[in-house]
Write a structure and sequence with these properties.
The complex is a heterodimer. In chain A, about 20% of the residues lie in helices and about 40% in strands. Chain A is α+β, with helices and mostly antiparallel strands. In chain A, strand 1 (about 10) and strand 2 form a beta hairpin. The radius of gyration of chain A is 13 Å and the shape is globular. The termini of chain A are close together. Chain B is of the alpha+beta class. Chain B has three domains: about 10-50 and about 150-235, Probable tRNA modification gtpase trme, domain 1 (Gyrase A, domain 2), CATH 3.30.1360; about 55-145, Alpha-Beta Plaits; about 280-355, Elongation Factor Tu (Ef-tu), domain 3, CATH 2.40.30.110. In chain B, strand 5 and strand 6 (about 95-105) form a beta hairpin. Chain B is globular and about 60 Å long. Chain B is built from eight helices and 19 strands. In chain B, the strands form four sheets. In chain B, strands 10-11-12-9-3-13 form a six-stranded mixed β-sheet. Classes of the chains: A alpha+beta, B alpha+beta. At the A-B interface, strand 6 of A face loops of B. Chain A: Belongs to the GcvH family. Chain A: Its cofactor is (R)-lipoate. Chain A: The glycine cleavage system is composed of four proteins: P, T, L and H. Chain A: One of its GO terms (cellular component) is glycine cleavage complex.
């Protein structure tokens, strides 16, 4: 099976994506990650104003069968949280790069480990 | 260790299933998605490859005596073509396994067939053989796990699906009854048993013909993931989670299946269980539903509202049917009644929960 890996994003080996525009970043998990997890039933995210550290876990995604930590692709301050995931965690399965976004972050620093779309594609293939 | 593979392994691979190690078997865990498969079984029908379950036959003049000695239920009440659920206990009354014992239909070469859990077939065959030899009984015990594929078809549409493929009158087959008959032209044993709470059947057939049976039952293929969520909604026990001789040593009374213990029969563990039956067990298995958000998982602590530890979760999930987080847990008998306020500790956070009776669903 081949998974969507949008060209305008960068990735962590642990299957998070980041969409950088100026000094803000949108963060989520990849199509590959949601498929590995299966039906997502619960998402635990930090609150607005929380500080993220690149490479450290910031939340938890639970599917029916598994619990998985989610890691920060950037350091910075959380400026928005996707509240829809509270009642519609299945958005992570349905639209991981769109409606299933998790956080918006004001970037202080990026992870050194960010992968290009090509490098991430190689990893999951 | 090499994993045992079910006879339909290649078929499942072609269907793009994902696999997991379960009881030493490489079994399909998910075909479509756990939720899709779960919902298919509750509303229409689904089929499961459960060939990892063991099959052991017992024949000869002392077959009934031997099987009676090693299971908690009373096998002497079974007529040919009838089956019963029971536990296999040690001298202390601790559950080693749970099983369905079938008294095979008239004309079968063997009198009894029982189904130990995945990976237990070798150990249970040994147990039957050593008890036989110790008691000088005349019985033949054969591990036939490799001689059978086992396919479950479960759900409200299961009777119609199976009826289209067999001449056996399913209307005359009651729950926990078993009949001989062809399914899709393959000689099989058809039992009205299952692990989902829905109407359904389990079909035992030769492994090299299993694909014909599997293919003929046209419904959603389901993996062990959905099998687990379905059984958990019914509060059914899973070997290794709700009981395990080392990690979770429990009597049938603690596990909530005291009804399978017939103290008026002679079996290994009977005397210990008689003592426990008189006083009642100190701890019991109870259903739990989380009120706060979160998903209860195996091993999580259960506490009082004040934070005093009282037990632990054995199995938990987000119930696809109820849309609520549910679990089974062992707690002191005083808490083992519905509507007690408790907490489940999820990643260090106490989450509000209440005890519930099982099954979680009316079926």
């Amino acid at each position: 099976m081949s998974f969507d890996v949008p060209d305008d994003l960068r990735y962590l080996e642990s299957h998070e994506w980041v969409r950088v525009s100026g000094d803000t970043a949108e963060v989520g998990i990849t199509a590959f990650a949601q498929d590995e997890l299966g039906d997502v039933v619960f998402v635990e995210l930090p609150e607005e104003g929380a500080e993220l550290t690149a490479g450290e876990d910031f939340g938890v995604v639970e599917s029916i069968k598994a619990v998985s930590d989610v890691y920060a692709p950037v350091s910075g301050t959380v400026t928005a949280v996707n509240d829809r995931l509270r009642d519609e965690p299945e958005l992570l399965n349905e639209d991981p790069f769109g409606d299933g976004w998790m956080l918006e972050v004001e970037i202080a620093d990026e992870s050194d480990e960010l992968l290009s779309p090509a490098a991430y594609r190689d990893q999951i293939e | 260790m090499t994993l045992r593979a079910p006879p339909l392994s290649a078929v499942h691979q072609r269907a793009d299933a994902s696999f997991t190690d379960f009881g030493g078997w490489e079994m399909p865990v998910e075909f479509e998605s756990i939720r899709t498969e779960h919902e298919a079984v509750r509303s229409e029908a689904g089929k499961f490859d459960v060939s990892h379950m063991g099959q052991i036959t017992v024949a000869g003049p002392d077959a009934a005596t031997l099987t009676q000695r090693l299971t908690t239920n009373d096998v002497t009440v079974l007529d040919p073509g009838e089956a019963q659920y029971g536990a296999i206990t040690d001298e202390d009354g601790i559950m080693l396994d749970d099983t369905v014992v079938y008294r095979l239909p008239e004309g079968a070469a063997d009198e009894f067939l029982f189904i130990p859990n995945a990976g237990h077939d070798g150990e249970m065959t040994e147990r039957w053989l050593s008890e036989r030899d110790e008691r000088g009984l005349d019985a033949t015990v054969t591990n036939r796990t490799e001689e059978y594929a086992m396919i479950a078809v479960q759900g409200p549409d299961a009777p119609d699906l199976l009826a289209a493929e067999t001449a056996v009158s399913l209307a005359d087959l009651s729950r926990f009854e078993v009949a001989d008959g062809a399914v899709a032209g393959v000689d099989s044993l058809i039992a009205q048993t299952g692990y989902t709470g829905e109407r359904g059947f389990e079909i035992l057939c030769p492994p090299d013909e299993a694909e014909a049976v599997w293919g003929a039952l046209e419904c959603q293929p389901c993996g062990l993931g959905a099998r687990d969520t379905l059984r958990l909604e019914m509060g059914f026990l899973l070997s290794g989670q709700e009981f395990h001789p080392v990690d979770e040593p429990r009597t049938p009374y603690e596990a909530g299946i005291g009804w399978t213990v017939k103290l008026d029969t002679e079996f290994v563990g009977r005397d210990a269980l008689e003592g426990i039956a008189a006083d009642g067990p100190e701890e019991k298995l109870i259903g739990i539903e989380l009120i706060d958000r979160g998903v209860p998982r195996h091993g999580y602590d259960v506490t009082t509202p004040d934070g005093e530890p009282i037990g632990h979760i054995t199995s938990g999930t987000m119930s696809p049917t109820l849309g609520a987080p549910i679990a089974l847990a062992y707690v002191p008998a005083a808490y083992a009644q519905p509507d007690e306020s408790v907490r489940v500790v999820v990643r260090g956070e106490p989450k509000k929960a209440r005890t519930r009776s099982t099954p979680f669903l009316d079926r």
